[in-house]
Design a protein that fits this description.
The chain is mainly alpha-helical. The protein has a single domain, classed as Amino acid/polyamine transporter I (Up-down Bundle). The chain is built from 21 helices and no strands. The protein has helices at about 10-15, 20-30, 35-40, 45-60, 65-70, 70-90, 90-100, 100-135, 140-150, 155-170, 175-180, 185-195, 205-215, 220-235, 240-265, 280-290, 295-325, 340-355, 365-390, 395, 405-434. The longest helix has about 35 residues, at about 295-325.
Length: about 425
């Protein structure tokens, strides 16, 4: 198999003359990107509000240690996606099409595109919340967000775009700052990990929040984004070990920030009525009343940043996957004139999502539920095929999944199937009770 031509800056770094630890650090800096971006962007606007409301409903006793324990789940899924892309130098949609036929190839793409569109709607809702609180009308807030995200593709080359996205992702640390500003009890946090106390209040809806917390750790677009991003970057099997480190760091940072968001929400425990139905603007307003203006402003900035990064990565996962399936030009190193259909999908999906939130009386809660259910439906066959493909000796060669990796992978499949069943059961039960 012919390896791809590596982008200029990336080639300069990996082919540099540095040796020893200097080379390791320099190459690692170059490889840092797809795994870290996929995981950090999973703390999107919808996820931020979900984590924050969870903290406001139940505190930190159960959910902070629970979210930390999700690192193995997300790492397993993303590592397989990265390894499949590195070895085959093809995106998942193309590999699935070749090995399992047109139905599964188009199934993954169509469901991914629909779920991504719903996800993008929630990102715009989160991004515009802070601007609306500043007094800007919804249409102007939406237009500003859309222009900023579309401007991203005007940057030159994959390397520049990735470094900018990494900077945006690094701003997620703002949630840890806000968490510290709420002055959480360190003794309570320590006890949460020691005792794993199950909250006594709101136990009737706690199962739903446990399901949502686990579901927030993984999303189908993450696999498509990381696999295609790794290929576009030019990573080969020689750099796979460092790509695993990139993925592991991303998984760890994602749950640490998620835990920080839960702690932010816990500051509102028992302080706000009907917090479960709070939207982004409502939560920021409540935080302002209970904790103070500065933490509320910083939380709003963090929410905008989370939606901004997720809008980029989610849109790119759709663009890469669809272009890959149809054989179109699909590199971020290409200019818009060189890959018009790739960029048309990116911009078009953003425009559709921006227009959607202007629809009066949009059922936001229903959109969130539908997006989660579709994500689960897509993730299960996706992960099944991922385990099968990465275990295929003919396809993967020496990089195939070994016995214990297969056992662990199938255990993750079983966990996700159980999660989907529990989600559907909880959803329909709530609908029947309402």
């Amino acid at each position: 198999m012919r390896l791809p031509t590596l982008p200029g800056k990336f080639r300069q770094i990996i082919e540099g003359h540095k040796t020893g630890w200097q080379r390791f650090i320099w190459v690692f800096w170059a490889l840092l990107g797809p795994g870290l971006l996929a995981t950090l962007a999973n703390n999107d606007a919808g996820g931020v509000i979900s984590y924050a409301v969870t903290g406001a409903q139940f505190g930190i006793g159960l959910f902070v240690p629970l979210v930390i324990c999700l690192v193995p789940l997300s790492f397993t899924i993303l590592e397989m996606g990265m390894r499949l892309g590195v070895v085959t130098q093809e995106g998942f949609s193309r590999v699935a099409l070749r090995h399992y036929g047109r139905f599964w190839g188009y199934y993954h793409i169509s469901t991914l595109a629909f779920e991504n569109l719903l996800t993008l709607i929630t990102e715009f809702i989160g991004m515009t919340a802070g601007l609306i609180l500043l007094g800007l009308p919804l249409w102007l807030s939406t237009a500003i967000c859309l222009i900023l995200i579309v401007t991203f593709v005007l940057l030159t080359g994959y390397w520049t775009k990735e470094r900018v996205a990494l900077f945006v992702g690094a701003l997620n640390v703002i949630f840890l700052v806000v968490a510290a500003m709420t002055h959480p009890s360190m003794a309570e946090i320590k006890n949460a990990f020691v005792a794993w106390n199950v909250p006594k209040a709101n136990q009737g809806i706690m199962t739903w929040y446990v399901i949502a917390t686990i579901g927030n750790a993984v999303a189908p677009w993450m696999i498509f984004f990381q696999g295609s991003g790794t290929i576009d970057k030019g990573v080969t099997s020689r750099e796979m070990r460092l790509s695993r480190i990139d993925t592991a760091i991303g998984c760890i940072m994602q749950v640490i920030i998620a835990a920080g968001i839960i702690i932010c929400g816990a500051a509102l425990l028992g302080q706000v009525q009907d917090i479960s139905n709070a939207g982004p603007a409502d939560f920021i307003y409540s935080l302002n009343l209970v904790v103070g203006r500065l933490p509320a402003i910083l939380f709003g900035i963090g929410l905008f940043n989370a939606g901004f990064l997720a809008s980029i990565t989610v849109s790119l996962s759709s663009s890469w996957s669809i272009a890959e399936l149809f054989g179109w030009s699909k590199s971020l190193n290409d200019k818009i004139s060189e890959a018009p259909r790739f960029y048309a999908i990116y911009i078009g999906s953003l425009v559709l999502a921006a227009l959607a939130i202007l629809i009066p009386h949009l059922p936001l809660n229903l959109i969130a539920v539908v997006a989660q259910v579709i994500g689960g439906i897509l993730m299960t066959p996706l992960l099944i095929f991922m385990v099968l493909l990465t275990s295929n000796k003919e396809l993967m060669g020496e990089h195939r999944t070994k016995l214990w990796g297969k056992i662990w992978g199938w255990a993750m499949v079983a966990l996700l199937i159980g999660l989907i069943i529990a989600t559907l059961w909880q959803t329909f039960t709530n609908l029947n009770l309402s």
